[in-house]
Amino acid sequence: MYVLKKNRGSRVTNEIILCIIFLIQFSQKRIIVKKLFRFQPDMKHILVWTDIQAMKGDGQTYFTNRKCEYTNCYLTRNRNLFGDIRYFDLILFNLQDVSVDTEHLPHVRGQNQRYIFVANNSADNYPICDSKYDYFFNWTWTYRYDSTIPYRFITVHNTQYEELGSHFNWNTNMKPIDEKMKSKFSTKSKAAVIFLDKCRSRSKREVLVKDLQKELGRFNLTVDVFGECGPRQCRRKTMQSCYWRVKKMYYFYLAFEDSMSADYITQAVLNAYDNYAVPIVYGGVHYNKYLPPGSYLNAVNASAATLAETMHDIIANREQYYNYFRWRNHYIISKSTPLDGCDLCQLMNHPARLKQTSSYEKFRKWWNPNYIQRCDSN
After folding, report:
1. pLDDT tens string 281-293
2. Looking at residue 358, what is its pLDDT?
3. What is the maximum alpha-carbon separation in the chain?
4. Rounded to an integer, what distance in angstroms lies between the CA atom of residue 136 and that of residue 160?
5. How, if at all, do strands 331-335 and 154-158 pair?
6. Nearest to 253 by CA among 242, 263, 238, 264
7. How confident is the model at residue 102 (pLDDT cuts 50, 70, 90)?
């Protein structure tokens, strides 16, 4: 409570006090109190140094929208967010940029900062040649089975839609398919098809396609090439009609990879599985680790002549052809999200892994054991 003196000598003083009271009351009415929303104390800040298509968006929304188990990660492309890049917990580097650029790299590095190598393509297509990258990366996020964060392009579930992961034994005693499924193959009349938009490849798959076309000609069979690299155009915006043709017309689909790298198997095989065709695979992976036994033909160790004869024999024997679909009674094979940021945020919340300060000593050789020959040929 304020007490005002009543004598004249204090008149000025009283007026000053009244002014002060008025100002206090006036200012109090206009004070707006806002609740401050701050980052969580244990927020993990992730800088995308080079563009990574799968990592779209900024802030926590990338992780919250995906309903990740851990959402205390903050994604940004703003290198100046803190004024010093050493404050970031993790920096992501994309394969394509790393393989050609060593000039635009960070000039300073935090003691506990992690650099992670992110790859969405093969080591054969993109070798790492510069010695600067040995000892450079702490973690890796690639299709390689021995990566810090390994991923697959395809996922295997059982018929209860339970993901089987990487460590399980395939069923080798599969049940025959029923008449309903057999009816799906009644309209098939053509040998094989492939979708090709990349006409020259490291694997030379285009050469194998031509050799196979020639050998199949002996049996009056053909390989049709859809896409930019063949006479039968099948554009991306009309792919559904192309898939329908695979399902109704073709016995085999050529799931040929564009490069030969260990553990590298893309979603090309799903063009066959999803459309009731038998995939003929060609790549550097051990396919028995990734695909159901008896569900595919492997062209890696077979000549075009042998492969053509095998295809002819299978087409001529419907019961033999049906056996390639027994896996459908036991498994569901579907598309995966290759670079899932939830896996990254989970790793950032793993105390034991965060304590590790090691780096890839011979990174170039780890990524591509034949990097010397590949780099010399560039």
Report:
1. 999 999 999 999 9
2. 80
3. 124
4. 43
5. antiparallel
6. 242
7. confident
Q: Tokens standing for 314? A: 């299978």
- Of 345, 347, 359, 336, nearest in space to 166 by CA: 336
State how far the Cα of 269 lies from the Cα of 256, in Å rounded to an integer: 8
Residue reference for tokens 């295809």: 311
Give the Cα separation of 245 and 286 in Å (integer). Answer: 29
Token pair of 270 as six digits: 């799903």
Q: What are phi and psi of 157, to 5 degrees?
A: -120, 160
Tell me the C-alpha distance between 173 and 278, whole Å: 19
Amino acid 182 reads: K
Give me the chain's average pLDDT, please: 88
117 membership: H or E segment, kind and range: strand 114-118
Q: Is the dihedral of CA 259, 264, 265, 266 positive or negative?
A: negative
Q: Cα 317 to the chain's mean position, in Å?
A: 38
Q: Is 367's pLDDT higher than 50?
A: yes
Q: In angstroms, rounded to a whole number, what is the distance separating the alpha carbons of residues 100 and 168?
A: 38
* Interstrand relation of 149-150 and 154-158 (parallel, antiparallel or unpaired): unpaired
The whole model's pTM is what? Answer: 0.84
pLDDT tens digits for range 224-259: 999 888 887 776 566 888 899 999 999 999 999 999
In contact, 166 and 219? CB cutoff 8 Å? no
CA distance 154 to 133: 29
Sequence-ordered list of residues with C-beta below 8 angstroms from that of 100, at least 6 positions apart, any chain: none
Based on C-alpha coordinates, what's the Rg of the chain?
Answer: 31
Residue 141 tokens read as: 């996020």
Backbone φ, ψ for residue 134 (5° rounding) = -70, 135
Parallel, antiparallel or unpaired: strands 139-142 and 149-150: parallel
pLDDT at position 38, please? 38
